[in-house]
Amino acid sequence: MSDENTLELDFEAFIEAFKERVKEGMSYRDAILFTSMTFGGSAANLVKQADRKFQEATFHKTELSKQPNVDECALASMDKLWHGEHFEGSTEQMQSSQEETILDTLYFILKYAESENALESVLAANDAVCGDKRARKAFLEMAFDVA
Description:
two-stranded antiparallel ribbon; mainly alpha; 64% helix; 147 residues
C-alpha cells in the first residue's frame, strides 16, 4: 500500500474517532485536538498546522484575517506566516498532495464546523477555493456524516 493510501486510511480513521468525540458532546475543535493527541505522529502534526492557520485566519488583528479571500490565502500559506500580500516560504504553484488535501480539510472543519449551517458553509468555502475540491468534499462530507 502506498504512503498516500495509508495516509488517506489513517485520516478516515481519524475522522471517525473525532466524530465519536463530537457525539459525546465535544466541540469539533476540541474533538479534533483531543483526537490528534491520542493518534499522535503525523495526525498531531497536521492538526497543529491546520489549527495554527485557523487561528491566524480568524483572529481579527492578523493580516490574513483581513484578506477578502481569507480561505484561499490561508490554504496557500498553510504552515507559513501571512505577511500582507505574500507569505513566508515558497510561492511555487504545487499540485494538491494527499497531505495538503487533509490540511485543507482540517482547516475548513475548524473554521466552519460551529457555524449555524455548518455543512452548507463548509461546502461553499470548499467550492470557492482552488485545489482538489472533490477530495476535500469527500472528506468534509465524511466529517459531517453526509452520504
